User: Fold this.
Amino acid sequence: LANMLTLVIKCKAAVAWEPRKPLSIEDVEVAPPKVHEVRIKIVATGVCHTDLEYLYGAGKAMKFRPFPLVLGHEAAGIVESVGPEVTKFSPGDKVIPLFLPQCGECERCRSPKTNQCRKNWANTQVGVLADGTSRISCKGQQVYQFLGVSSFSQYTVVPDTSLAKIRSDAPLDKVCLLGCGVSTGYGAAINTGKVEKDSSCAVFGLGAVGLAAIMGCKVAGATRIIGVDINTAKFEKAKEFGASECVNPNQCSRPIQEVLVDMTGGGVDYALECVGSPGVMSAALESTIDAWGTCVIAGWTETEAMSVVVEKILMGRTLKGTYFGGWKSVEGVPKLVDDYMNKKLKLDEFITNILPLDQINVAFADMTSGNSIRTVISLSTEETSG
Ligand code: NAD
Ligand code: ZN
Ligand code: ZN
Assistant:
């Protein structure tokens, strides 16, 4: 066995050679896991807006990450081999890799106030693992690992603190969505916003993150859930997820925040921004009621600033951000898998398309055009549900 572990795996991956260029399918080499690392076979991966943004917005709204890079961070797979000192995983385990670790030992992991574990943080943000190198290479060149994950590859290696072991009957081609988008939106409502029963909510952006936020508002017992999107084609699905009504800002004669304040007689109790645009963030804050309104930002931008009229905060509103929906990742994700298996949480309804890895650029195009909610990329012919 020890011998087998030392073998490099040759497989296919979608490599981003440079920013703003389509991904290219390459033969890559995936090195064996080092100490406290796990090599996994990726079975399925979702394509998240953040993947798109890091590629096409690199150096603009997103900080520049080193290239070449293998993107992908919303996945599920099977443990292939484990490195030295790994005690919690064995080959064959079903797992979800995590872009947010939970080491369980640091000050932040011990605090109930946050999910922001910082284990390996500086390294994973620049695309390398604990020893400062990546396990993926192509044509003799190191290929960086996006957020320490890189799921647009048939195999990858992740730290053992960035991996959740899930139940063996979980369908990997569905639960992959719990690796990012669905967990983020759902948690934005229930963990970060702490949406209450009988409240009113507005969800800006009706992609996977926004639809999951709607699902969270519904589970929390909100009575009025207003979906907001500039693409009217998203409204039907939003209603399926629990939106009571939907509004298109482009079809309003006044700013969307004014429309929402009027619709609710003073503003919504909770607004959730799931777009990633500073202008929408300000509108979301201003659509909440003074005195107790809460605005949660889930949409991602790293270099831009939003404007806040100070009086809006002085009057009692709260502005919060959420990372991975506030879930402590290693323990939260298996519970979300249980919720899906117990039909408390939808996943299948997010999936609008399933494509093989060599069609990955189509998934990006469909997300940009608004034709998809989530495309799931199937990386393996085995282990699909159905
Ligand atoms: P998506 O592209 O599928 O959905 C975005 C939606 O916003 C689309 O339906 C689009 O039509 C809509 N939209 C665009 N401009 C709008 C506007 N001005 N007003 C209203 N709606 C508008 O994206 P997604 O995968 O659902 O991700 C949404 C955001 O969440 C992205 O910014 C992504 O990077 C971010 N994200 C954050 C985290 C986190 O941990 N906080 C995790 C995952 C994703
Ligand atoms: Zn994501
Ligand atoms: Zn920690």
